[in-house]
Design a protein that fits this description.
Blueprint: H1 5-8, E1 12-14, E2 20-23, E3 26-27, H2 32-42, E4 49-50, H3 51-59, H4 67-82, E5 87-90, E6 93-96, H5 104-120, H6 124-136, H7 149-176, H8 180-193, H9 198-210, H10 214-232, H11 238-248, H12 279-290, E7 297-303, H13 310-321, E8 329-333, H14 345-355, H15 367-379, E9 384-390, H16 393-396, E10 404-410, H17 415-421, E11 424-427, H18 433-444, H19 446-451, H20 453-462, H21 467-478, H22 485-500, H23 511-520, H24 524-533, H25 543-550, H26 554-566, E12 571-574, E13 577-579, H27 582-592, H28 598-620, H29 644-663, H30 665-668, H31 671-688, H32 691-708, H33 711-727, H34 731-748, H35 751-767, H36 771-787, H37 791-807, H38 811-827, H39 832-847, H40 851-868, H41 874-887, H42 891-908, H43 911-923
Parallel strand pairs: 7-10, 7-11, 8-9, 9-10
Antiparallel strand pairs: 1-2, 2-3, 4-6, 5-6, 12-13
Length: about 950
């Protein structure tokens, strides 16, 4: 490992026992939260630890108000004590860069790995020496003096198990050498300190038996049997029970010094250079093996897309875990996906049996007999078996051993193995941005990345954070060291990623070939669905959108999507929500280029969104949209909604795609439909407070309506866009758009839409505090709405008029319109409007000095916000409620409500509002936590 500047300063961090830190200047006192932070970084040394995980390890569930600043403060203090470059800041987290000389945990791992290498080479002496060096590093329970329950639960068992694996392998070597009597005292001490670790009891029994102390060996069995039964309510595991029987029978195979009749296979491919990330997955595999208890065999099924790093993870973990499996490690590529025919299970069994020393003449002909012999032979061995690149569960099931552990990798989710054989799934996703950058940097070099950090970060994203793609991109950069990274970024950004990341001389590493092999294994319907995904403008897609693109029933589309997810060509994160990563999306776009009928497919897709948005809007607003929409044609599925909750949920899922269809009207040419789609989505956008999106979509819709030559639709879009400008502080444009809409509607003679334009104009003037000017437009809006019988819209105008009177300080005059509006809202079918009415009533009550009633009204509105999805009001209502409580003298309760508003701003990413509320908290408190 490369020595860093920290080594020159003599940095030493010891975590394998009492937590200790020292530099060349002497011991450094690191306590409290600084210790928890440094411990978290140390247990993931040389890997980026995400901010969320550090916060969890340092504070648990009691994080301060400004937790990120608190974390930065702790890092700064550590840097002052350890050196400015001891902890690196990365995108999304922090990293402690250390060597085995600096961190005892790394030394432990390094010595265990050295022992595994020696074992594979048959050098038992070197293996034992490395194991002894590893064991000597242990000074006591790690993290015992670190105040981080989360870190202790997450990391403590992993490192303890690693030490145990080394210690037990040392004992095994001693027993193999005939040194049983010498280790009995150690084993008695270990079993006393770890009484439920059956593997130690088994070694004690064997050592006693070999020392001629058979009665004591049988007594040890009785002790562990009683302990396990009394404390766990279980019988001892099979290994201990089998050993007990062998001792009773005085089996000659237990004698020391017996010649080894079977070879110990060490078949793992070389470990992965520069392995990055996957800490949670590695820990999960460790837990599965550590918590096996009496299970005869532990099955871990690792699935994920082509190039995601399944084999790398399995092989890397297998090398780390090798000391736990003294009887060997087997590796077999089942060739489930690739240019070759998948390995037949019968042939695979033949290879596995020969690998453990079964003579060819003993291998049966039939597959069932081979599988039975394999289970029998493997049941008495502590082996690890890696079955790589499996096609399906049927290929794997006959290969499951009778004991030990199995790791299976496949692009397919092997649900049959979990349902019938108890396999635990480990699904690999893409690397985080920080992990992807670390992998790329490791391959390209820190100097080049430091010279062009933005280009490097962009390359990571353009490679979809796919490990294989990142390695190929790094190889491309390394072959052209004189080229700037920006040139590679431009190549990848020019939709040429799959070409840039191709490898001519190794199809196993060629990204397009890997995708082709997955694609070629699809059935015809799934392949057809994958093809049309290249036409989809959004990210996540559901069965209705696929049905529209492919002109098939939604049920058929859903089944095809599920099959694509099963083979990891799509990821399913939510029900009916599927998404390929960016490189697979590019692969789908390449497929879609050759599709006949692509324009018709896009037209069906837009029609699906228009008609479904119309149905969803009906649940949010019963005011007619008054736009002519043709009946849905054949092949256009339309979703149905049971209530407003399901309608809002649909918009939540689909709004990104809807926005892209509206903004991309010039590309698909469906201008009228794009403008209509914006209008149908406006009520949802308004409820959620998506003001910037209203502006962007509204401007595109205005252009589309103009291109379609539809003046009515253009004026509607002016009205819709104006509300977005009102909330993004461009009041002049809001008034200009309201005025433009009003002029067109007057020319068209549309009274109801004139009312809407006047309503929006009055609202704009209110926002500008030009209350006196707002009175007449709002009164005129009320009159126009009432003249056409639109009581609900008239109530909205009355509610805004009440806001106007409140702004003028005429609270008594405001009370009447506000109450009339709220009464109408309560009678209507749009509960979301009740929130607006309550907010106005509460502000009038507070302005009149009735703070107790105002607080109760605000509370009612806050309780209703989430139920009716008016999330735009969640923060301002809490701010008003807090003021009412403060006016009543209930400062603590006011601060609690303001804190809720602050947390909501942080969650929504509204930094401006968050800063305003933080100032509010500061003004009404002596100190602020964090």
């Amino acid at each position: 490992m490369v020595q860093g500047k920290a080594t020159a300063r003599g940095l030493r961090i010891r975590v394998l026992g009492p937590f200790e830190v020292e530099t060349a200047a002497g011991p450094v006192d690191v306590g409290g939260r600084q210790r928890a932070l440094l411990a978290s970084l140390a247990f993931s040394a040389n890997q980026v630890v995400p901010l969320w995980k550090l916060i969890e390890h340092v504070w648990g569930e009691e994080s301060p108000l400004d937790v990120r600043n608190g974390l930065q403060t702790l890092v700064s203090r550590l840097r002052r004590g350890l050196g400015a470059d001891a902890i690196e800041t990365t995108e999304g987290g922090y990293l402690l860069r250390a060597t085995a000389e600096e961190l005892d945990l790394l030394a432990l791992r390094e010595q265990v790995e050295s022992a595994a290498v020696a074992a594979r080479e048959g050098d038992t002496g070197r293996e034992y020496a490395s194991l002894a060096s590893a064991v000597r590093l242990w000074r006591g329970d790690p993290l015992e003096d670190v105040a981080s329950p989360g870190l202790r639960a997450e990391a403590g068992p992993q490192v303890t198990e690693l030490w145990f694996a080394a210690r037990e392998r040392m004992l095994d070597v001693d027993l193999e050498r005939g040194h049983g009597p010498e280790v009995i005292a150690d084993l008695r001490d270990l079993t006393a300190r770890h009484p439920l670790r059956e593997s130690l009891w088994a070694r004690l029994m064997l050592a006693l038996h070999r020392a001629g102390r058979r009665a004591e060996a049988l007594d040890a069995y009785r002790q562990v049997t009683d302990l396990v039964r009394d404390q766990l309510g279980l019988d001892v595991g099979r290994a201990v029970a089998d050993l007990h029987r062998s001792i009773l029978l005085d089996d000659e195979a237990l004698a020391a010094g017996q010649p080894v009749t079977a070879q110990v296979p060490r078949q793992l491919p070389g470990d992965v250079r520069g392995f990055v990330g996957r800490g949670d997955e590695l820990a999960g595999l460790d837990r599965l093996v550590s918590g096996a208890g009496g299970q005869p065999v532990v099955i871990s099924a690792v699935d994920g897309a082509a190039g995601i790093g399944k084999t790398s993870l399995a092989v890397h973990w297998a090398h780390r875990a090798a000391p736990r499996f003294p009887d060997g490690q087997l590796y077999l590529n089942l060739r489930g996906y690739g240019p070759s025919v998948p390995v037949d299970p019968a042939a695979a069994l033949d290879m596995l049996l020969r690998s453990i020393g079964v003579q060819p003449e003993r291998v049966p002909v039939g597959i069932e007999e081979r599988a039975a012999l394999w289970r029998t032979e493997s049941a008495v061995r502590g082996m690890l078996v890696v079955l790589d690149n499996a096609r399906d569960s049927a290929q794997v099931r006959p290969l499951l051993p009778g004991g030990g552990s199995v790791v299976v990798t496949s692009r397919r989710k092997l649900r049959g193995l979990s349902a019938r054989d108890g396999a635990r799934h480990v699904t690999l996703g893409l690397l985080s941005p920080a992990e992807g950058l670390e992998l790329f940097t490791d391959q390209v070099g820190r100097d080049r990345v430091a010279a062009e950090p933005d280009a490097a970060a962009a390359i990571v994203e353009l490679c979809a954070r796919l490990p294989l793609a990142l390695r190929l991109a790094a190889d491309h950069a390394a072959r052209h060291p004189e080229w700037p990274l920006s040139s590679l970024r431009e190549e990848l950004a020019d939709q040429r990623g799959l070409e840039v990341l191709s490898v001519d001389d190794d199809r196993d590493s060629d990204l397009r070939s890997l995708f082709d092999w997955s694609y070629d294994a699809l059935d015809a319907q799934a392949a057809a669905v994958f093809d049309v995904l290249g036409l989809f403008p959004g990210d996540g897609i559901g069965r209705y959108a696929v049905a529209a693109l492919a002109a098939i029933p939604p049920s058929v589309a859903g089944a095809a999507l599920a099959r694509l997810a099963e083979v990891s060509m799509l990821e399913q994160r939510l029900p009916d929500r599927f998404e390929p990563h960016d490189l697979l999306r590019q692969y789908a776009r390449d497929k879609a280029e050759a599709l006949p009928g692509a324009p018709a497919a896009i037209e069906r897709l837009v029609a699906h969104y228009v008609h479904t948005a119309e149905r969803a809007r009906y649940h949010l607003s019963r005011i007619p949209h008054r736009m002519p929409i043709a009946v849905a044609g054949p092949g256009v599925p339309v979703a149905v909604f049971a209530d407003d909750h399901s309608a809002v949920a649909w918009f939540d899922r689909e709004i990104d795609t809807i926005a892209r269809l509206v903004l991309g009207a010039d590309e698909h040419g469906l201008h009228a439909q794009a403008a209509v789609l914006f209008q149908l989505s406006w009520h949802y956008l308004n409820l959620r407070g998506h003001w910037h999106r209203i502006v962007d979509m509204g401007e595109a819709a205005i252009r589309s309506a103009t291109a379609a030559g539809d003046r009515f639709l253009r004026a509607k879009c002016f009205n819709g866009a104006s509300t977005g400008y009102g909330r993004t502080a461009d009041r002049d444009k809001q008034i200009a758009y309201c005025t433009a809409a009003l002029e067109i509607f007057r020319e068209l003679g549309d009274i109801a839409e004139q009312g809407t334009a006047l309503l929006n104009l009055g609202s704009a003037l209110n926002w500008l505090h030009r209350f006196a000017e707002a009175v007449e437009p709002l009164r005129e809006a009320v009159r126009l709405y009432e003249s056409v019988g639109d009581d609900l819209s008239a109530a909205m105008a009355l509610n805004n008029l009440a806001d106007t009177f409140a702004g003028l300080g005429r609270y008594e005059e405001a009370s009447g319109p506000a109450q009339r509006a709220l009464d109408t809202f309560r009678k209507g079918e749009e509960p979301a409007r009740i929130v607006a009415g309550l907010e106005t009533i509460a502000s009038v009550q507070a302005g009149s000095g009735d703070h107790r009633t105002a607080a109760a009204t605000y509370r009612e509105a806050v309780d209703l916000v989430e139920e009716v999805h008016v999330t735009r009001s969640a923060v301002p209502l809490r701010v008003g409620w807090g003021h009412a409580l403060h006016a009543l003298g209930d400062v603590d309760q006011a601060r609690r409500v303001w804190r809720e508003a602050y947390d909501r701003c942080l969650r929504d990413g509204d930094e401006t509002a968050a800063e305003e509320i933080r100032a509010l908290l500061s003004a009404h408190a002596r100190s602020i936590p964090g």
